[in-house]
Amino acid sequence: MAEEATNQTAEISPPAAPLAPTGKVSQWLTQNGFVDHTTLATDAQGVEVIRVEAQFLLPVATALYAYGFNYLQCQGGYDAGAGDDLVSFYHLIKLSDNAVQPEEVRIKVFLPREHPVVPSVYWIWRTVDWQERETFDMFGIVYEGHPNLKRLLMPEDWVGYPLRKDYVSPDFYELQDAH
Known about the structure:
The protein has helices at 2-11, 24-31, 57-67, 129-139, and strands at 37-40, 48-52, 71-79, 86-94, 103-111, 117-119, 142-144. By secondary structure, it is α/β, with parallel strands linked by helices. β4 and β5 form a beta hairpin.
């Protein structure tokens, strides 16, 4: 009898983690046919966070622009950990003349570290120009369609991406003449 009770408790799986509640922007996207996204937990300030696959970033970003998210506050990247994905994120704001508290949303695109490629949103929000270049320079995320994707902070001949968690810094640095 004791063996049967032990076997029964071993078969019971832990409850699944609750899904993040669907926010206003995610609901709007779904109602308008953009079902290829996932709602993540809100950030520390309570702002809705949406995960989008790289191939759906441009359609979703264009829809959000049409919905009124006319300001790209920030674009950047981070390394989720050695061996894990790289993430390109976008902080969008809906600005208007009479807004006391503008509406905000965060978009995250998770990319494999072996081939991190995502479309550039430069043609939607031109302010992303140097932000995508910096993310490319520091993490190696390639923004397809960017008009001038080249190193911004590191020398052109620098090997590797310094903010990746698996980056190994070189044993020496060549001093360059400053003129």
